[in-house]
Write a structure and sequence with these properties.
This protein is of the alpha+beta class. 61% of the residues lie in helices and 17% in strands.
Length: 69
Amino acid sequence: MKLNKKLLALGATVVGVASQAAVTADPATGVLSGSIDTSIYSSGIPIVIGFIAFTLAATAVISLLKRAK
């Protein structure tokens, strides 16, 4: 369990260091303002969506094959 926590902390640190954000909080109102640069994640988003679609398609095909028997 300790290893999982260390890996989680390492992953959060890597993502936090790689992220580009300029966000400020107004102490009077508590409103956040600023911008977050998400360009470093742009290449990973289509890969994740494609993987999810592939997994769902494979599950559907396996389900259909089981029903065909």
